[in-house]
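Need residues for this backbone.
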C-alpha cells in the first residue's frame, strides 16, 4: 500500500549521539537473558552502568565486551580493564581456558561466556531496544545513507527525544553500540545500516527491529562482496523484510530498483523523489553558490526549503528525511527547520576556500561510481567557468568489475571539461585511459602516489581554481586535503 497521508572516537561519538543522557543500566541476570550466555563466575544481581568495548575509554562501573576485531582482540585487554576497576565482562567460550578465571572468581568478578562476542553484543542491543520501548527509523542505501541519517535525525529531534547513529557506527559493532546508548527518555532512534556482504542487513535489522525503513538508492557499491546490482538490491531489500508487522517503507521513487522493491513489499510504502508518483517531492529547484533551494511538496502542503550544501543529489537525501518526518506527523514548518539546520559532515562535500584563493571540495569519506558522478556534477556547477581539477583515488570493493567501472569515471571527468585529472591507486591508469579516450590530452591525466600528486598540485594550482578530492575510505585521500590546507597556510 502506498501512503499519501500522514498518521499521528567510538566512545566520544557515542556520548555525542546520546546528548548527555544516561543509558539504561544492566544487571548480570539481564545480560545473561539477552545473550544466552553462561555465567562462569560472579554475582547474578550485580548492576553495571553501561557496556563498553574500548579498554581506553572504560569506567569502573562498565561491563566489558571482549570483541575480536580485524586488528585487535579484546580478550588481550581483559586483565587491563579489571585492573582499572571493571567488575564484569563477556568473553568468547573458546578463549576461556586462556584467561585467569580462578583469579577473577576470587576477586568476585562477573564473567559471562558466549559463543561469539560480536553476535552477543548484537543480541544485547536487540534486548535493549525492546526494553527501551523506543521507535526506530533505519536507513540504508548505496549512496547518501549517512547524510540522510543526519538530516532525518535533525528533523525527528525537533519533536522527539532522539538517539542517532554517530560517525560510521553502522555495522555489527557500531549499530549495537548506538542502541546500547538508549536512555529511558529516548522516544526515537535514527540509525544507519551498512553492508559489505550478504546477510549483514538482515542481521542489523534483527538487532534494531525498525518501525520505518528508508532505502536511499541501489547502485554499484560493495560489488566485491555482493556480486552484482541484483545482489545489492536483494541485500538492501532485507531492510524492508526486517520491518515489523506495522512497519512502513520510505523509498526513493527515482531509483528503478528501489521502486521494484516498493512493488514487491506488502508493507505500507511512502515514496519520495522528483517523480510525480512521490507524495514527498521537490519542485522549482534552484542552485546558487553553496546552497540549493526547492519547493517541498509535503503531501497536500508545500513549503520553500533552502539546503546548506551544494549538489542536486542532496535534494534526494533531504526528501528522505522529510518523508520520515511526514510519517511521524511532524509539521512541514518543523521539517523545513530540521533540514535547514543541516551542515555537511567532515569529508562529505565540505567546501574549503583556502587562504591562497584555491577552492577545494573535500569529498574524501568514501566513493563508488554513483557518488563519483554526483561529485563531478557538483564540481562542474561550483567552478562556474573557472579551472576544475579532479583528484581521484580508487573506488574499492568493486571486485572483478573494478577496471570497467573506473574507466567511465575518467571519461565523465573529461566530458565535464575538467582541466586536469590526477589519479592514484591500482586503477589510476583505467581512469586516465577513460579520460584520454574522450579527448583529454595525456599530459593532463596524471597518475601517481598521493605524495607525488600533492607536490604537482602545489606547483600548478592558482587562485580561483576548484579542486575536487575524492576516493574510497581506504585510499586516505584526506591526506591530500590536509596537505593542500597546510600548503595554503590554513590554520
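Answer:
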Amino acid at each position: 500500500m502506498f501512503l499519501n497521508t500522514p498518521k499521528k572516537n567510538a566512545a566520544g561519538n557515542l556520548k555525542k549521539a546520546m546528548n548527555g543522557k544516561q543509558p539504561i543500566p544492566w544487571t548480570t541476570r539481564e545480560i545473561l537473558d539477552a545473550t544466552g550466555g553462561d555465567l562462569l563466575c560472579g554475582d547474578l544481581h550485580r548492576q553495571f552502568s553501561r557496556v563498553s568495548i574500548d579498554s581506553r575509554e572504560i569506567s569502573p562501573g562498565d561491563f566489558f565486551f571482549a570483541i575480536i576485531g580485524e586488528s585487535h582482540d579484546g580478550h588481550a585487554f581483559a586483565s587491563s580493564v579489571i585492573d582499572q576497576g571493571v567488575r564484569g565482562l563477556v568473553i568468547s567460550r573458546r578463549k576461556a581456558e586462556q584467561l585467569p578465571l580462578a583469579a577473577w572468581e576470587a576477586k568476585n568478578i562477573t564473567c559471562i561466556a558466549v559463543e561469539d562476542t560480536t553476535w552477543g553484543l548484537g543480541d544485547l542491543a536487540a534486548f535493549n531496544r525492546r526494553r527501551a520501548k523506543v521507535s526506530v527509523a533505519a536507513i540504508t542505501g548505496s549512496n547518501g545513507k549517512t547524510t540522510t541519517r543526519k538530516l532525518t535525525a535533525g528533523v525527528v529531534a525537533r519533536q522527539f527525544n532522539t538517539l542517532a547513529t554517530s560517525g560510521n557506527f553502522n555495522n555489527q559493532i557500531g549499530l549495537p553500540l548506538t542502541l546500547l546508548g538508549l536512555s529511558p527518555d529516548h522516544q526515537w532512534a535514527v540509525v544507519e545500516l551498512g553492508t559489505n556482504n550478504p546477510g549483514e542487513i538482515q542481521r542489523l535489522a534483527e538487532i534494531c527491529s525498525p518501525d520505518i525503513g528508508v532505502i536511499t538508492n541501489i547502485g554499484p557499491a560493495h560489488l566485491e562482496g555482493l556480486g552484482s546490482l541484483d545482489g545489492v538490491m536483494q541485500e538492501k531489500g532485507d531492510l524492508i523484510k526486517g520491518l515489523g508487522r506495522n512497519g512502513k517503507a520510505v523509498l526513493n521513487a527515482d531509483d528503478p530498483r528501489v521502486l521494484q522493491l516498493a512493488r514487491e513489499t506488502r508493507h505500507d510504502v511512502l515514496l519520495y523523489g522528483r517523480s510525480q508518483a512521490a507524495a514527498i517531492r521537490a519542485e522549482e529547484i534552484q542552485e546558487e553558490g553553496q546552497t540549493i533551494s526547492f519547493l517541498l511538496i509535503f503531501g497536500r502542503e508545500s513549503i520553500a526549503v533552502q539546503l546548506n550544501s551544494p549538489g542536486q543529489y542532496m535534494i534526494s537525501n533531504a526528501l528522505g528525511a522529510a518523508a520520515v518526518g511526514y510519517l511521524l506527523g511532524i509539521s512541514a514548518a518543523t521539517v523545513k527547520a530540521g533540514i535547514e539546520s543541516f551542515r555537511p559532515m567532515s569529508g562529505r562535500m565540505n567546501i574549503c576556500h583556502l587562504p591562497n584563493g584555491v577552492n577545494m571540495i573535500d569529498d574524501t569519506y568514501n566513493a563508488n561510481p554513483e557518488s563519483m558522478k554526483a561529485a563531478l556534477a557538483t564540481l562542474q556547477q561550483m567552478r562556474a567557468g573557472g579551472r576544475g581539477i579532479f583528484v581521484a583515488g580508487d573506488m574499492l570493493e568493486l571486485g572483478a568489475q573494478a577496471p570497467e567501472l573506473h574507466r567511465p569515471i575518467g571519461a565523465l571527468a573529461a566530458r565535464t571539461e575538467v582541466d586536469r585529472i590526477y589519479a592514484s591507486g591500482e586503477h589510476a591508469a583505467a581512469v586516465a585511459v577513460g579520460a584520454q579516450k574522450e579527448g583529454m590530452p595525456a599530459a593532463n591525466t596524471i597518475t601517481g602516489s598521493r605524495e607525488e600528486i600533492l607536490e604537482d598540485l602545489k606547483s600548478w594550482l592558482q587562485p580561483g581554481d576548484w579542486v575536487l578530492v575524492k576516493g574510497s575510505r581506504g585510499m586516505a585521500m584526506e591526506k591530500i586535503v590536509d596537505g593542500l590546507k597546510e600548503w595554503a597556510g590554513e590554520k
